[in-house]
């Protein structure tokens, strides 16, 4: 905890100390003694929290014991304490002792299961504020598990136009709302230095450096990626590096979308300027668009959306550009025979790009009907999986997510099915997928999806910004992130 406190000094002016995570009285005493000696409280604002198990924490002692810990933390230099409403509701007397050293107090409510309905949430906030005023608290905090984007925005809305109100939407779906918390009026936003203490938290370094959460304001333009899953994507690294290089007041966020209607309803409240689309929404998003680029309409898949005046949605497909840039330097596309494995939205962009460039396209996919329709659309053919060992291609392209981080040991095809001169995997994380390893083992030239990812992303950035992208800075950021991951795996 002491080491993490020193690390936090690099990024933050306010730090919460979760004292309930310390293992017993001996660790607590040692840490508080070090805290008093080092006088961290003179360099930053320290909030002491000793969350009881009944309120989602780890402290097993009584309320009296909890209050005693907080009293000691104040003596060690903490200027604030955070006390859950359950302890207040239990009738504990703490008004005198916990004012020692003029410490200020946060009254907090947590629900790790759900967010109450809209009306219940406002009533709950009202009761929390009333209790805080009655007991002499200085701020209130509400943290609830959010199971939709709409719920996460509703939680943030509780802090808007209120003084010393803290809104904490929890859960993976709520990650964008966590990043936007300060922008939307919350007095604090939470991020762990190392170990998360609540669901959906992002590391402190990512909150401050990648998303610049403390610098966002009501004028900051918001863009994002929608998909399920999205944990594999480095789109936030790519686009935020572009914004930083051009000094654009904008941020790019990852939206885990379970229901497309839930996200579409949030476009207006978030004031999104645009978003990119990944699996499984590249085809489904089209029904929500007001208009579409003719090429994207022909492909039948959209990976880029611009939000225009009055919330009108306009779709593009930049995967098409990425495919051509990734392959045209490695092979002669015109007159080649190419197998595309998969028949989803990414496969459609690959198929149309290669067919228009003069390739003969073959489709092999688990689902026969989408494969047949795609082959028909590009004047190609379908090939059953069992026939691959007898066929030969100039190139094989994987357009499925099989082998994507974190499932890096999987391959969509077996080594004996790779009868070709070149294998292109549209996956870029990891750069060297299991499929590419199998291909290299047979002496086949390989192409990572990194070039495609960078090309399509740069095209997206330019569509949104209306100016040339800082391609070099964007590439360096993504390559550095991938290199860091590889070095981390090597150390393990």
The largest β sheet comes out as:
6 strands, parallel
Helix content: 25-40%
Principal-axis shape equals elongated
Q: Which range does the strand content fall in?
A: 15-25%
Which strand order do you get reading across the main beta sheet? 1-2-3-4-5-6
Count up the domains. Answer: 3
Low-confidence stretches: none
Can you tell me the CATH architecture of the largest domain?
Answer: Alpha-Beta Barrel
Could you please say which CATH topology of the largest domain applies here?
A: TIM Barrel
Please provide the count of β strands: 18
Name the CATH superfamily classification of the largest domain: Aldolase class I
Give the structural class.
alpha/beta
Summarize the structure.
The protein is of the alpha/beta class and 492 residues long. Helix content is 37%, strand content 19%.
Please describe what this structure looks like.
By secondary structure, the protein is α/β, with parallel strands linked by helices. The protein is 37% helix and 19% strand. The protein is built from 17 helices and 18 strands. The mean pLDDT is 93.
Give me the secondary-structure topology:
Blueprint: H1 2-8, E1 14-18, H2 25-38, E2 45-49, H3 63-75, E3 80-84, H4 85-89, E4 104-111, H5 118-135, E5 139-145, H6 149-157, E6 165-170, H7 175-179, H8 204-210, E7 221-227, H9 235-245, E8 250-256, H10 260-270, E9 272-277, E10 291-292, H11 294-299, E11 304-308, E12 312-316, H12 319-327, E13 337-341, H13 345-356, E14 360-364, H14 368-377, E15 381-382, E16 393-398, E17 420-425, H15 434-441, E18 445-447, H16 450-465, H17 471-491
Parallel strand pairs: 1-2, 2-3, 3-4, 4-5, 5-6, 7-8, 7-9, 10-12, 13-14, 13-16, 14-15, 16-17, 17-18
Antiparallel strand pairs: 9-11, 11-12
């Amino acid at each position: 905890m002491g080491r993490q406190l020193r690390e936090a000094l690099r990024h933050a002016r306010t730090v919460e100390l979760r004292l309930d995570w310390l293992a017993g009285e001996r660790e607590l005493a040692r840490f508080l003694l070090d805290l008093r000696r080092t006088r961290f409280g003179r360099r930053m604002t320290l909030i002491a929290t000793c969350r009881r198990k009944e309120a989602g924490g780890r402290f097993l002692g009584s309320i009296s014991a909890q209050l005693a810990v907080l009293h000691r933390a104040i003596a060690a230099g903490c200027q604030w304490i955070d006390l859950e409403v359950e302890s207040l509701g239990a009738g504990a007397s703490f008004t005198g002792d916990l004012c020692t050293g003029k410490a200020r107090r946060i009254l907090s409510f947590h629900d790790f299961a759900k967010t109450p309905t809209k009306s219940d949430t406002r009533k709950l906030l009202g009761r929390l504020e009333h209790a805080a005023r009655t007991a002499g608290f200085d701020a209130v905090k509400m943290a609830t598990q959010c199971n939709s984007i709409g719920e996460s925005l509703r939680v943030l809305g509780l802090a808007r136009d209120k003084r010393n109100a803290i809104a904490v939407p929890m859960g993976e779906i709520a990650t964008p709302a966590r990043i936007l918390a300060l922008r939307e009026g919350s007095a604090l936003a939470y991020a762990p230095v190392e170990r998360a203490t609540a669901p959906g938290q992002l590391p402190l370094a990512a909150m401050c450096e990648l998303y610049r959460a403390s610098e966002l304001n009501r004028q900051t333009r918001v863009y994002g990626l929608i998909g399920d899953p999205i944990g594999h994507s480095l789109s936030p690294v790519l686009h935020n590096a572009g914004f930083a290089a051009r000094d654009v007041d904008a941020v790019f966020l990852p939206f885990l979308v379970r229901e497309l209607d839930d996200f579409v309803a949030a476009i207006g409240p978030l004031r999104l300027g645009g978003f990119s689309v990944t699996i499984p929404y590249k085809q489904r998003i089209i029904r929500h668009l007001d208009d579409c680029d003719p090429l994207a309409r022909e492909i039948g898949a959209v990976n880029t959306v611009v939000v225009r005046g009055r919330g009108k949605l306009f779709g593009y497909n930049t995967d098409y550009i990425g495919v051509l840039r990734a392959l045209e330097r490695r092979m002669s596309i015109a007159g080649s025979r190419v197998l595309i494995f998969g028949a989803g939205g990414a496969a459609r962009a690959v198929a149309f790009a290669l067919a228009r460039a003069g390739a003969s396209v073959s489709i092999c996919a688990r689902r026969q009907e989408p494969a047949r329709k795609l082959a028909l659309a590009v004047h190609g053919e379908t090939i059953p999986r069992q026939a691959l060992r007898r066929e030969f291609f100039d190139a094989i392209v994987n357009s499925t997510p099989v082998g994507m981080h974190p499932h890096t040991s999987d391959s969509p095809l077996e080594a004996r099915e790779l009868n070709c001169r070149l294998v292109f995997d549209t996956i870029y994380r990891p750069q060297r997928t299991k499929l590419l390893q199998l291909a290299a083992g047979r002496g086949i030239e390989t192409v990572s999806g990194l070039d495609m990812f960078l090309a399509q992303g740069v095209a997206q950035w330019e569509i949104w910004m209306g100016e040339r992208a800082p391609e070099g800075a964007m590439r360096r950021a993504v390559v550095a992130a991938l290199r860091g991951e590889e070095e981390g795996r090597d150390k393990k």
